[in-house]
Amino acid sequence: DAKTTQPPSMDCAEGRAANLPCNHSTISGNEYVYWYRQIHSQGPQYIIHGLKNNETNEMASLIITEDRKSSTLILPHATLRDTAVYYCIVRVAASGSRLTFGEGTQLTVNP
Amino acid sequence: GAVVSQHPSWVICKSGTSVKIECRSLDFQATTMFWYRQFPKQSLMLMATSNEGSKATYEQGVEKDKFLINHASLTLSTLTVTSAHPEDSSFYICSAHGTDGYTFGSGTRLTVV
Question: What share of chain B has pLDDT > 70, as a percent?
Fold first, then answer.
């Protein structure tokens, strides 16, 4: 699986958009970009994933650059409950293969 | 959506005893389940991958005789920490892979005293 690089921490004001970047310059053509988050002392929660097109769901939007070497997760209106560690993972969408986590970004949403 | 139930959510045990943690996929069948360990302020570290009906595959550096994994059915995997020591105190998280992708349990906080 391709390596990812994320800033260790970010701050965001409540109600504003949170934009979390991820670099994955060695991504292969068949690798997807996945985002998970982990609220303190809980299991990770799936947020969104994409291959090359931008994706949006009820939780977030995922913007992938045209060369696919980086992506941005956007939480459009961050709330205090969005404070968590956000993990960007790049991997082939093979059934049941290992899912490994990097260090992620600690997002703190401030009132 | 897919739900994974993990029990217990926390446990305190004496050094030298064994502790079993259960991971159940409630509404889907999971041919593959994963076990992670997480120390404070660190990321999740994959310990092992278990496939239903076969032996688990352990990551490098994880003692298979200490962390016994059983995946006897498509909905249940167990992790037994044998002869626990204080350094085994950690947050253990399971994950199950189904048609909706990877779903994680809520984790088990193990404290060995």
Answer: 100
Min Cα separation B16/chain A (Å): 25
β-strand partners of A92:
A31
Predicted pLDDT of residue A98: 83
Burial class of residue B45 in the structure, from the number of CB atoms within 10 Å of its CB (0-12 exposed, 13-18 middle, 19+ buried): middle
Question: What is the nearest CA distance from A41 to chain B, expressed in angstroms?
Answer: 7
Q: Which residues of B touch A45 (CB under 8 A)?
A: 104
A8 Cβ neighbours under 8 A, 6+ residues apart: A103, A105, A106
Confidence band (pLDDT; 50, 70, 90) for B54?
Answer: confident
Q: What is the mean pLDDT of residues B82-89?
A: 97
Largest CA distance in chain B: 40
Distance CA B57, CA B46 (A): 11
Handedness of CA A92, A96, A100, A106 (dihedral sign): positive
Instruction: Locate B73 and state its tokens.
Output: 């059915």
Q: Which amino acid is at B57?
A: T
Low-confidence ranges of chain A (pLDDT < 70): 1, 94-96
User: For residues B13 and B83, is the Cβ–Cβ distance under 8 A?
Assistant: no
Q: Using CA atoms, how far apart are residues A45 and A35, in angstroms rounded to an integer? A: 9
Using an 8 Å CB-CB cutoff, list residues of chain A that contact chain B. Answer: 38, 41-46, 49, 85, 87, 95-96, 98-104
